[in-house]
Automatic annotation (TrEMBL):
It comes from the Bacteria. PANTHER family: ANTI-SIGMA FACTOR ANTAGONIST TM_1081-RELATED, ANTI-SIGMA FACTOR ANTAGONIST TM_1081-RELATED-RELATED. CDD domains: STAS_anti-anti-sigma_factors. Pfam families: STAS. The gene is rsbV_2. One of its GO terms (molecular function) is anti-sigma factor antagonist activity. Residues 3-113 form the STAS domain. This is Anti-sigma factor antagonist. SUPFAM superfamilies: SpoIIaa-like. Belongs to the anti-sigma-factor antagonist family.
Length: 113
């Protein structure tokens, strides 16, 4: 297990930068971190996957939980800089249409309007 989580300053939008490997040993910790970031953000959470080397289905389960919490809180959840290896897990889970994406860890303009 090798996972690093860092959250940028949260006002209207929080950005969580994830690095390393997301597997069963750390997925619950990632989920808890995402939930805390959602609570702190006023409008949206951007999850930056640029540093992710590996993710299994337990990481996908954590993302689904964060998506459900975002909907409950009426906030938006975006995935950014998602490497192909993570996109593959999302597709295999049948969830490729379930998430909104942005090309980089910059906040989409329409989030702030």
């Amino acid at each position: 297990m090798n996972l690093s989580l860092r959250t940028g300053p949260a006002e209207r939008v929080a950005v969580v930068h994830i690095g390393g490997e997301i597997d069963i040993a750390c997925a619950d910790g990632m989920r808890d971190h995402l939930m805390a970031a959602l609570r702190a953000a006023e409008d949206a959470l951007v999850v930056d996957f640029a540093g992710v080397e590996f993710m299994d289905c337990s990481g996908l389960r954590a993302l689904v939980a964060a998506r459900a919490r975002a909907e409950f809180l009426r906030k938006r959840l975006y995935l950014a800089s998602v490497p192909e290896r993570v996109q593959r897990i999302i597709r295999l889970g049948g969830l490729d249409g379930a998430f909104a994406y942005c090309n980089e860890a910059a906040v989409p303009d329409h989030v702030l309007s």
